[in-house]
Design goal:
Strand content: 5-15%
Order of helices and strands: HEEHEHEHEHEHHEHHH
CATH class of the largest domain: Alpha Beta
Shape: globular
Number of domains: 2
Structural class: alpha/beta
CATH topology of the largest domain: Rossmann fold
Distance between the termini: 51 Å
Number of helices: 10
Number of strands: 7
Helix content: 40-55%
Length: about 290
């Protein structure tokens, strides 16, 4: 094999190595926050992975949550305008649009205030203890970042909640002014009851031990509750999806089939409404993409 061929082969191997390192655990230092409006934090290689197309629904399709929607949008707008804003905990019933609202609010505010340079960065629950590294990257950037953790909760013997407490507003440096934290959870206090009761039974000062656990939720200035939806809200969600997708069906048939679907599922929620509409669109030979 000639020297030129060997050189070319080595170059190809170097490029392949770089790709493998980026996707399978190598250390990546090139975090280009101008490359997208949304990212996913890849903790194993300290890389903010750009998301070209965010999986979200439009704000207008989120029904039955008008009050919490308005509060979160107002808070997000204040943050985008560099005014004081709070960390937000969206808690409550499953399938009622908690994570959808966070993503929709980001898009709404970004469109309304395009020069805000507002980014949405998702961090996985299991990577919470790497928050200091992520904050270090964002602290020196010129963007504003919403850190978003979906389905946040902590199990017994899990101490990573202490990293979250320090990152939210504790520590010497504190939370950067250009970062805010939004989380969704089915639990209002994020920690299971038996975990807090175990702390109470084994601690020298039970009240102080429990207070440490509960104080995690106190780091969120906004507690936005999501509750099970009424039948009218459920039908409004279904109608909104059907109208957007332009599915041809009579109101009477739509109502009957939507209620039957909810009955078979044993619940009513935005997620159930969307699943019904997906089934309906499939039967009508349509796509929901």
């Amino acid at each position: 094999m000639s020297d030129d061929a060997i050189t070319l082969l080595n170059q190809k191997l170097d490029r392949l190595t770089n790709v493998l390192e980026k996707h399978f655990g190598g250390h990546v230092t090139d975090n280009d926050l101008s490359s997208a409006s949304a990212f996913v934090w890849q903790a194993e290689n300290t890389w903010l992975q750009p998301v070209p197309k965010v999986n979200r629904v439009s704000l207008e399709l989120l029904k039955g949550i008008d009050n919490v929607r308005d509060i979160l949008i107002d808070n997000t707008e204040r943050f985008a305008n560099s005014y004081a804003a709070n960390n937000a905990l969206l808690w409550g019933a499953r399938g009622m649009g908690k994570s959808s609202l966070v993503k929709a609010a980001h898009a709404h505010v970004l469109n309304k205030i395009p020069d805000s340079n507002l980014k949405l960065i998702e961090i996985h629950r299991e990577d919470i203890d790497t928050l200091p590294a992520l904050l270090g990257i964002l602290r020196n950037s010129d963007c504003k970042a919403i850190l978003f953790c979906d389905d946040l909760s902590f199990d017994n013997d899990d101490t990573s909640y202490k990293s979250l407490k320090a990152a939210l507003d504790g520590g010497v440096e504190g939370r950067p002014d250009n970062v805010i934290f939004y989380a969704t959870s089915n639990r209002r206090h994020l920690l299971p009851r038996d975990m807090m009761e175990n702390e109470r039974s084994t601690a020298i000062n039970p009240s102080e031990a429990v207070e440490e656990k509960v104080s995690l939720s106190d780091r969120f200035g906004l507690w936005l509750g999501f509750h099970k939806c009424s039948q009218d809200d459920y039908l409004a969600m279904v109608s909104g999806y059907v109208e957007q997708l332009e599915i041809d069906i009579t109101p009477e048939q739509l109502r009957a089939e939507a209620l039957e679907w909810a009955t078979t599922r044993g619940s009513r929620s935005g997620r159930v409404a969307w699943q019904f509409v997906q089934d309906l669109a499939g039967r009508e030979k349509q796509n929901t993409a």
